[in-house]
Amino acid sequence: MSAGAVERPERDRPLIVAADRLMQHHPGHRVEVIGSQILVSPLRDGPHAVALTELMLRFMEAGLHDGGSALLQGIGLWLPTGAEDYAIPDLSLVDADYTDRHAENNCYDPGCFRLVLEVTSENHLTDLRTKVAAYAEAKIPVYVVVDREHQRLHVFTEPVGDTYVNHHAHAPGEMAALPDSVGAEVALDVAAVLEAGSRLRPAGHMTGGAEVW
Questions:
Q1: Element (H, E) at 48
Q2: Would the pTM of this model clear 0.70, i.e. be above it?
Q3: Helix (H) or strand (E) holding 86
Q4: Alpha-carbon span 135 to 19, nearest angstrom
């Protein structure tokens, strides 16, 4: 769908309409439609934002926000997994002409995304399962997950069907090298990224996936 495409009327977009209403009633929450299900993720904590800042600095140092590409937080990604499916990655690396690739519902065509990245909150199962399949089906070349629950940084590459051929889980002390397809040489210091996103938890704290509506 091109930038000039006309979006469908509300009667043909019941999930998106419901998602928009949920966003109005839950300010600050992330609402997405994946697999024709509405997912509502809770507010992020401060260290989540710190980890994103650390990562953005590393990408910017590599020259990936210099006009040839752009680093964007919270941009909508239109998905092929359902008639109304879309995701909102924490961080995306997109081609500079992404504004010409508008799809629907203020989202953009997956073809202009070079990389998407998620920092886990209470939704680590969503990021490590549901979104792996969704982003693979959208043919996103590189998917990175900062897994604060298990202290790992995951790099998924080479999407085929609903999975990625290559999956590397990097531990603290390692450097996670990203493929050249992102547009520059980038190696992430796993320990530094995980330390930036570290958080203290109350005793007995439990985590799970995003709430499904």
A1: helix 46-61
A2: yes
A3: strand 86-87
A4: 20
